[in-house]
Amino acid sequence: MTTLEVRGLTKTFHKITAVDDVSFTLAPGRTVALVGESGSGKSTIARMIARLVRPTSGEIVLTGPDGEPVPRRGYRDHVQMIFQDPFASLNPFHTVEHHLARPLRLHGRSRSDVPRLLEKVSLTADFARRRPHELSGGQRQRVAIARALAPGAKVIIADEPVSMLDVSIRLGVLKLLARLQREENLAVLYITHDLATARHFSDEVLVMHRGRIVERGSSDDVLVRPQDPYTRRLAAAAPDPEARFRQGGQS
Ligand SMILES: Nc1ncnc2c1ncn2[C@@H]1O[C@H](COP(=O)(O)OP(=O)(O)OP(=O)(O)O)[C@@H](O)[C@H]1O
Ligand SMILES: [Mg+2]
Questions:
Q1: Which residues span the domain enclosing 81?
Q2: Burial letters for 14-50: b for 16+ Cβ neighbours within 10 Å, e otherwise?
Q3: Residue at 171 is within a domain
Q4: Which tens digit of pLDDT belongs to each residue from 80-137?
Q5: Which ligand has an atom closest to residue 19 CA?
Q6: Closest residue (by CA) to atom 26 of ligand 1?
Q7: Ligand 2 center to 251 CA (angstroms)
Q8: Does the reported pTM lie above 0.90?
């Protein structure tokens, strides 16, 4: 059981407090959705967890199966990001196999695991020799997900993982993430503007407004029966989620 706990996380850029005293826990087999308007601090939280941005104050503690904090060196293997733009996150000169073999090798696993990893993200083994420009957006994002799993990640931070994909394939990628979350017992932070998928794919929802969490709870409580005025406005502005799923975004 690998658990990531964020305590009192704060980030100030010059005079702007982008993230203000945020605390939550990511646990195995659970998805936490982080929602809120543009500029509310969601990506800054993701980037601090991914160690791309240093917190101004607060702590991020990763606890391993033995109940002990994971040492700094192991952190990056355990905590992996999936970014919004799969094109930008893959190197155009390298094959899919290269993208996957490198993290496998660094973690003492062999290149022969590549087909198994591809299968996990529902891609056939022949994708290994392709380059990013020979893939669709959805296939690229599947490769990015496979790469996140390659070092044996236990915590996945997905920052708007489908917002740049064609609407017709978004649900397929989210369902893949949900399946992997179950199969691999991953802890997932799902950052999105889309309240419908936040409700559908998460156990808990955190609502951010100006750097603070203004409301949190089970996805139904927060998104169907919001208490906070800001969450109410957010929910009222969103299209009816049930209608979206009735329309069969089943792709
Ligand atoms: N490197 C930086 N330097 C200065 N200010 C920054 C930096 N990164 C983010 N900010 C500011 O921090 C605030 C939060 O930005 P952040 O990207 O976390 O928002 P977000 O919730 O992810 O928004 P979006 O939904 O548009 O992706 C914004 O006011 C932003 O301008
Ligand atoms: Mg963002």
A1: 3-86+155-244
A2: eeebbbbebebebbbebbbbbbbeeebbbbbbbbbbb
A3: yes
A4: 999 988 777 899 999 999 999 988 988 888 888 999 999 999 999 999 999 999 999 9
A5: 1
A6: 38
A7: 25
A8: yes
